[in-house]
Design goal:
heterodimer, A: mainly beta, five-stranded antiparallel β-sheet, 1 helix, 3% helix, 38% strand, B: mainly beta, 2 helices, 36% strand, globular
């Protein structure tokens, strides 16, 4: 259901369906690389590294844990954030659609442990779904490359991502999420069948595949001081009112200008159409 | 409702952007990697415009194995584009906002890639007409604001020279000649380099290109072509890791129309502040009316 006009929007900002509060512990980062909040506590509780392929939901530890509003349309209308360090960057709220783990940084060639990924139950066409390689225990310091075999948004299997960097500084630490580029002509991912590390990174560590659907990205531009931020859909999100489908497993994708995200506290305000 | 009806006010915009009135709100998640077909891209030079058309990413980059040859109108269905949905025949697609964060500092240019062609050589002197003239514009058909870019697909030579093109302006008057500009050698030869050509005095756009002329050989044939581009957004990213948002209602007085045909070939170029190739992550939001 659409929001009819500005007055209705203002009503929804004031009469919220729910506030989802969160406090996420700092994640150590390399500046400007993408990181996942999945393993970060303390409220809601941190997620755990997955093993077998699964569809995480709002009931899965690690998600923001919002309540479903079956039968109507739920939207993120406002985000209030406070970061505890001069770290800045950009915070992206995403729906974690499917994940698995148990892959190794020292096995060269195709790995199929705990693969293929679980079938999508949200964003089922796969269009605009991103294929992330998420590190749960640091892999090695030796840089190599990585690719994956996947099914694209048209349902075509055995598509192969072009090689991209894996292992080494910026590409090996815990919570790092490396989004893989897609084969020419593709615009999304439905499933992943295997992952291939070209050569050993030197340390097995543990990593997995995460299929994610970013909903909105909020720049945290003032990087000179601990930052408070209060943004809403009309202006702060760029006139975007992200729909939160039932079961969505909300988590953060984080970019920083420094070496830590700092503690991130805040509230996500959801409305119901 | 007729195509191109204006979005009347904030109420109308909110209604459309939440799916009312045939607004069809659309999200495109995108990222770009510093690879072209899984290999290192051409060397970047600070302050020199670089095309991200071939860069790997999602949606995918264009095929590095098959750069443009014959002239073609590029659309939202062309590999390398954002691939946003074509809007209904009765509506226009509009860009609501565009966000990005980058690994290195620079400025990101979002543009409509109107036409491209390739197969030109860095060693041929005199007018080259291979795969020219360019295809007739199907978007921005007056040519106003359309830029004439030379885009390098394979490294050309180290010998510096100059280049010009013969084009049709917005009047449309054919036989117009661009001002000579640098061509070949560092900063003007690397793969993915874009060199916008300056127009003849009095001109403010381009509708077609008939030929391209190297004043002298650069020493290596390489491969390059003509791209006609219509820049839409320039998003400065001065701090690595710090995201930025371009918002139509905050910046442009409202969502930005992508033209009457709604099949804009949205692509990106990069003004680098450093020789490190960019890695970029972002989103684009669209609505129709």
């Amino acid at each position: 259901m659409a929001i009819a006009n500005l007055a209705a929007y203002q009503d929804r900002l004031q009469g919220l369906y729910q506030k989802v509060r969160f406090t996420k512990a700092a994640v150590t980062t390399v500046a400007a690389r993408s990181y996942s909040s999945w393993l970060s506590g303390t409220f809601p509780a941190a997620g755990v590294a997955p093993t077998t392929a699964a569809v995480p939901t709002n009931a899965t530890a690690g998600s923001l844990g919002q309540i479903d509003c079956a039968g109507s349309t739920q939207r993120l209308l406002r985000l209030i954030l406070q970061t505890a360090g001069a770290t800045g960057g950009m915070i992206t709220i995403a729906d974690r659609l499917s994940h698995q783990g148990g892959l190794s940084g020292i096995v060269a060639g195709a790995q199929t442990t705990n693969l293929p990924t679980a079938a999508l139950t949200r964003q089922t066409t796969g269009d605009d779904v991103l294929l992330g390689i998420e590190v749960y225990t640091a892999v090695g310091a030796t840089g190599t490359t990585i690719s994956a075999s996947y099914t694209n948004q048209a349902g075509t299997a055995t598509r192969t991502t072009p090689l991209t960097t894996f292992g080494g500084t910026g590409f090996n630490a815990i919570s790092r999420i490396i989004f893989l580029p897609l084969q020419v002509s593709d615009s999304g991912v439905r499933a992943v069948a295997s992952v291939s590390v070209t050569a050993t990174t030197g340390t097995a560590g543990a990593f997995g595949v995460t299929l994610a659907y970013p909903l909105v990205s909020i720049p945290v531009e003032d990087v000179t001081m601990p930052m408070g931020l209060d943004e809403e859909g009309l202006f702060g999100f760029g006139t975007w009112f992200p729909q939160i489908v039932d079961g969505a497993c909300l988590f953060f994708i984080l970019h920083t200008v420094g070496t830590t995200t700092g503690i991130i506290q805040g509230q996500a305000h959801l409305s119901e159409d | 409702m007729a195509a191109g009806d204006p979005i009347t006010d904030l109420s109308d915009l909110i209604f459309l952007a939440t799916g009312g009135g045939g607004g069809s709100p659309e999200l495109v998640n995108w990222h770009k990697h510093p690879f072209v077909g899984g290999a290192a891209p051409g060397t970047l030079v600070a302050g020199r415009l670089t095309s991200l058309w071939m860069y790997d990413g999602a949606p995918s980059g264009a095929s590095n194995a098959a750069p443009p040859t014959t002239s073609a109108v590029t659309t939202n269905a062309t590999d390398g584009a954002f691939k946003q949905a074509t809007s209904a025949a009765s509506t226009k697609k509009r860009l609501l906002s565009f966000s990005a964060v980058g690994l290195v500092a620079g400025s990101l240019i979002l543009y409509d890639r109107l036409v491209h062609q390739g197969g030109l050589s860095g060693v041929t002197t005199g007018a080259q007409t291979t795969n020219l003239p360019t295809s007739a514009l199907t978007r921005q058909t007056t040519g106003v604001g359309v830029e004439l870019w030379l885009e390098i697909y394979t490294l050309i030579g180290v010998t510096g020279t100059t280049v010009t093109a013969s084009y049709t302006n917005t009047v449309p008057t054919s036989g117009r000649t661009t001002k000579a500009t640098s061509w070949g050698n560092t900063g003007f030869r690397e793969a993915q380099r874009v060199i916008p050509l300056p127009l003849a005095i009095g001109d403010n756009g381009v509708t077609a290109v008939a030929s391209v002329t190297n004043a002298a050989t650069t020493g290596t044939a390489g491969a390059f072509g003509v791209t006609l581009a219509y820049p839409l957004v320039v998003l400065p990213l001065p701090v690595p890791g710090a995201g930025r948002l371009w918002s139509g209602i905050m910046t442009a007085g409202g969502p930005l129309s992508l033209g009457a045909t709604s099949d804009a070939c949205l692509a990106m170029a990069w003004f680098p502040n450093t020789a490190t190739a960019p890695q970029l992550f972002g989103q684009a939001f669209f609505v129709e009316k």
